[in-house]
């Protein structure tokens, strides 16, 4: 999709069972843009885990039932992905690593501009996300080991 995107700020890392009962991945949620209006949800590279396409995972959960279909299938899927990241940050249940301030890099694969704000965001970027701090990356990997 383009060059590597970088940012600095709060990052929430959490495991996701994307296909019941045993297909998992490790995700990171952060924001960028003025006032965090762009959501960034990336899959952290873990060799022994799958690297799913997040919009396909969202489609498997039939997001139109929750977000409607008027704005299109991709927008409903994007809203589901954003909700997954946002909920992991504010939910407090399950394992997660909430990093208050770090530098990250995203190799983007998708960008969706939403027709209206969802969870405070007007756009979504997905792809492969890495934390630039090797020690934090090790801590993140412990969530799935």
Task: Report the sheet-strand fraction.
Answer: 35-45%
Radius of gyration: 14 Å
Give the uncertain stretches in residue-range form. none
Largest sheet: 5 strands, mixed, barrel
Helix content: 25-40%
**Total strands:** 5
Order of helices and strands: EEEHHHEEH
Distance between the termini: 31 Å
Shape: globular
Give average pLDDT, whole number.
Answer: 91
Trace the largest sheet across and list its strands.
1-2-3-5-4
Kindly name the structural category: alpha+beta
How many H/I helices? 4
Task: Provide an overview of this structure.
- The protein has 145 residues and is α+β, with helices and mostly antiparallel strands.
- It contains 4 helices and 5 strands; from the N terminus they run E-E-E-H-H-H-E-E-H.
- It has helices at 54-60, 64-67, 73-91, 134-141, and strands at 5-19, 23-32, 38-43, 97-118, 121-131.
- The chain has a 5-stranded mixed barrel with strand order 1-2-3-5-4.
- Helix 1 (54-60) packs across helix 3.
- The chain is globular, with a radius of gyration of 14 Å.
- It starts with a strand and ends with a helix.
Layout of strands and helices, then pairs:
Layout: E1 5-19, E2 23-32, E3 38-43, H1 54-60, H2 64-67, H3 73-91, E4 97-118, E5 121-131, H4 134-141
Parallel strand pairs: 3-5
Antiparallel strand pairs: 1-2, 1-4, 2-3, 4-5
Helix pairs in contact: 1-3
């Amino acid at each position: 999709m383009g060059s590597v995107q970088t940012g600095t700020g709060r990052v929430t890392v959490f495991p996701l069972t994307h296909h019941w009962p045993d297909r998992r991945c490790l995700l990171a949620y952060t924001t960028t843009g003025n006032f965090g209006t762009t959501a960034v949800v990336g899959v952290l590279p873990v060799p022994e885990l799958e690297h799913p396409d997040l919009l396909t995972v969202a489609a498997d959960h039939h997001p139109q039932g929750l977000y409607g279909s008027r704005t299109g299938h991709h927008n409903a899927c994007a809203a589901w992905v954003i909700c997954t990241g946002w909920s992991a940050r504010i939910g407090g249940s399950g394992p997660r690593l909430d990093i208050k301030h770090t530098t990250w890099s995203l190799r983007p694969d998708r960008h969706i501009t939403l027709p209206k704000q969802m969870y405070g965001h007007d756009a979504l970027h997905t792809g492969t996300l890495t934390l630039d701090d090797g020690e934090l990356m090790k801590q993140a990997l412990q969530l799935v080991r």
